[in-house]
Amino acid sequence: MKITLVAACALVDADGRVLVAQRPEGKALAGLWEFPGGKVEPGERPEATLIRELDEELGITVKEACLAPLTFASHGYETFHLLMPLWICRRWEGTIQRKEHQALQWLHPARLRDIPMPPADEPLIPALIDLLGP
Fold first, then answer.
1. Which of 17, 31, 34, 50 could form a disulfide with 106 if both were Cys (CB 3.0 to 4.6 A apart)?
2. Phi and psi (nearest 5°) for 34?
3. What is the average pLDDT across 98-125?
4. How many CB atoms are located within 10 Å of the residue 52 CB?
5. Is 73 in contact with 86 (CB distance < 8 Å)?
6. Got the DSSP string for 4-52?
7. What is the mean pLDDT of residues 50-71?
8. What is the pLDDT of residue 27?
9. pLDDT, position 106
10. Alpha-carbon Rg of the chain, whole angstroms?
């Protein structure tokens, strides 16, 4: 089975809320809420993936020093296995804008359980609650 590496980021605001983005129509798992990020390209480091994806998806600039690894998810889908490390980021430059997603919302970590997320994202929630509180 093919293993797909996807880097994800929990952007955290001053109130301890985490940004989630709604997957757009026409993509797999459309309408579900996820952490921003994307597939790691061949030869690309996951941190570089996040810097690129956060710029493309949200229009913000993130420096590698502001990315802190937190945890990871390992999930088997029907046609591939997803390995997804999650980084935390509390500092970025620019104003977050919706460029590729249907919607964006800021939620306290415990509220992440109240929204539909892809199966691979759900196991990341307890680590965020442990770090940030409910």
1. 17
2. -140, 170
3. 94
4. 17
5. yes
6. EEEEEEEEB-TTS-EEEEEPPTTSTTTT-EE-SEEEPPTT--HHHHHHH
7. 97
8. 83
9. 98
10. 14
CA dist., res. 95 & res. 104, Å (int): 13
Of the candidates 37, 5, 6, the residue with the CA atom closest to the CA atom of residue 21 = 37
Token couple for 120 = 């691979």
pLDDT value of position 29: 83
Q: Does domain 2-132 have CATH number 3.40.50.10260?
A: no
Distance CA 35, CA 19 (A): 7
Sign of torsion over alpha carbons 116, 121, 126, 129? negative
Q: What is the DSSP letter of 56?
A: H
Q: Which two tokens stand for residue 81?
A: 């296995």
Mean pLDDT, the chain, rounded, equals 95
pLDDT score recorded for residue 28: 82
Structure tokens at 73: 């998810």
Residues across the chain: 134
